[in-house]
Amino acid sequence: MEASPAEVERIRELALNRGAHNAKIIPPSSVAVGEWVRLKCKFGCDGYSRSLTCPPFSPEPSTTRKVLDEYEVLILLHLPGNWAHLNDIAADLEREVFLRGFHKVYSMASGPCRFCDPCPMQYPCRHADKARSSMEACGIDVYQTARNAGFTIEVASNHDSPTNYFALLLVE
Ligand code: SF4
Questions:
Q1: Residue among 54, 87, 113 whose CB has most ligand 1 atoms within 8 A, to mutate
Q2: Which residue has a Cα nearest atom 1 of ligand 1?
Q3: Which range marks the domain in which residue 112 is found?
Q4: What is residue 55's predicted lDDT score, i.e. its pLDDT?
Q5: Total domains present in the chain
Q6: Cα 119 to middle of ligand 1, angstroms
Q7: Residue 87 CB less than 6 A away from ligand 1
Q8: What integer pLDDT is reported at residue 144 of this predicted model?
Q9: Using CA atoms, how far apart are residues 135 and 124, in angstroms rounded to an integer?
């Protein structure tokens, strides 16, 4: 079901009420997806292949591009400093928006899955209701996507650098 502008605005307000610092409505075309993002996961991230939400189990970038283009509206959620809380907000929103009648709604999170330690690496996922692949695990260039949406984001160059986390809600 296509969301009207008023409904999209209500969902955006829900995100803010749940604790997102910002929530911006963006078109699918503004999301940057790259095959190179997979290389960053495979060579350079110690989370590679350690949970069902991460590569190689998460969608390939080419699949992500197609999936994004199947939606009319995306909402980019931003929360500095607390990726776990941001992921809870995104998962809760996905459920709530689904119950409002938008059967295609889906969310992409931030960072690795945190629910089991270690991940049993067996389907079904133990927390299928809320464990979602991160934007980056799906091949999204989060930096460029955030900049395209008007956010200022730089590489965290040391432990004292501010951290910014993003999640994505696909609404329809
Ligand atoms: S919720 Fe548990 S089983 Fe599912 S991906 Fe995360 S760590 Fe693995």
A1: 113
A2: 127
A3: 5-171
A4: 98
A5: 1
A6: 5
A7: no
A8: 98
A9: 21
